[in-house]
Amino acid sequence: MLHVADHPLLRHKLTALRRRETDSAHFRRLLSELGAILTLAALHDLAETTTTIETPMQPMDAPILAAPEPCLVAILRAGLGLLEGARLVLPDAPVGHVGLVRDEATLAASRYMLRLPPELARRGALLLDPMLATGGSAIDAVAALKEAGARDIRFACVVAAPEGVARFIAAHPDVPLHAAALDARLDPRGYILPGLGDAGDRCFGTEA
Ligand code: PRP
Ligand code: URA
């Protein structure tokens, strides 16, 4: 199911991220801030319990997470930009990496690396990638997480295309999808319109 996060600050930062004139340093900072906000949105329903603590004033029953924090998993390269902000929210979460790159002609994603933390089954995972275009990269990354034993998986992206959303939900109907925006469509080269261009290149200053 697709959830489009609803917050004026998120939309404001996304507009700055989309602007052609936003340079790489600013782009990275914005992506990190969006990573923190999207992490909060994607994990809004984590199970809680209570524990008894003492404040400087008196004892109280106070809420805590019922299970350990979920692992964070970044799809390389652009997911690293979101990961920075996600780690501000979950500083103790183990981190995994899935390296995926799209073939520019076929748009098929191919996996070139996979390093996942050992506790996926116990913790669940929040998968991060700013762009959901054809959906191929996210679909493959979720399949890798499932093969590694993850059960509670969530996916957070910044911009989603309707084509990718439909493919992702068909492939992984059990994985909630959180986006900052649902854009109009893909262009013939598989780029999202209006989108924000090539997220990896803008993040790492590798534009041609
Ligand atoms: C981009 C983006 C996503 C993927 C989305 O990565 O960061 O991972 O494309 O496209 P899809 O939904 O059609 O699979 P890219 O392959 O350009 O690699 P990069 O992040 O290393 O630049
Ligand atoms: N990957 C990107 O970085 N941008 C797009 O618009 C589509 C795929």
Descriptive notes:
With 208 residues, the protein is α/β, with parallel strands linked by helices. It has 7 helices and 12 strands. The strands form 3 sheets. Strands 1, 4, 5, 6, 7, 8, 9 and 10 form an 8-stranded mixed beta sheet that branches. A two-stranded antiparallel ribbon has the order 2-3. A two-stranded antiparallel ribbon has the order 11-12. Strand 5 (95-102) and strand 6 (109-115) form a beta hairpin. The mean pLDDT is 97.
So what's the CATH class? Answer: Alpha Beta
General shape = globular
Q: What are the segments in which pLDDT stays under 50 over at least 5 consecutive residues?
A: none
User: Oligomeric form of this entry?
Assistant: single chain
Strands, total number: 12
Strand content: 25-35%
Tally of domains: 1
**Main beta-sheet strand count, sense and barrel state:** 8 strands, mixed
Query: What number is the mean pLDDT?
Result: 97
Q: Can you count the helices?
A: 7
CATH architecture: 3-Layer(aba) Sandwich
Q: Which structural class fits the helix and strand makeup?
A: alpha/beta
Bound ligands = 1-O-pyrophosphono-5-O-phosphono-alpha-D-ribofuranose, uracil
Briefly note the CATH topology name. Answer: Rossmann fold
**Fraction in helix:** 25-40%
Order of helices and strands: EHHEEEHEEHEEHEHEEEH
Rg over CA atoms, rounded to whole Å, is 17 Å
Question: What gap, in angstroms, lies between the N and C termini?
Answer: 36 Å
